[in-house]
Amino acid sequence: MIFKYIFLTISLALSINGLLSPLVPSEFYTYQLAIVPTEPDLLKIYWKILNGNEIQLELHCQTTGYCALGLSHTGGMPSSDMVIGWVDQSGAHLWDTYSRLRTSPTKDPQQDWTLLEAREVNGYTILKMKRKLDTGDSQDRPITNEPTFLLFAWNNADPVNDNWLYHSQNKQVAFTTLM
Question: What's a GO cellular component annotated to this UniProt protein (predicted)?
């Protein structure tokens, strides 16, 4: 019985400190959404509005490759605004991209997302980032109080030579308001 108590105490302490579960956000967020209800730990997004003109979000994805988040008015990849991030041997990377068609996104010449933190923990990639709600960039979708489609894609491989592998079936869509 004493061993069971010690084990439970240690497990609880590790969970509270975030050592067992990488799915604990790094700070308080106003909103959160588990993207796949049947697999709530597969993909989660946390977000909040900063100073009325910026959004900060934290994406938790069960992969050690890249994670992508897209903003779309149709729910599809064409004409969507995307951010793609990953962690590899050279460090953390975050690209502001867009897609005109259903093909690999193009890197936006104006990089509007700021990477605040990125790490891989226990098979998860965690990306913390922010950007202005309205960047003034024609490739970016303004974030308003209107519902929008959130596109998610991931791959278990990191991009090589600035090219990422197709996500295949690793994709999800959610519909929500971000404000």
Answer: secretory granule membrane
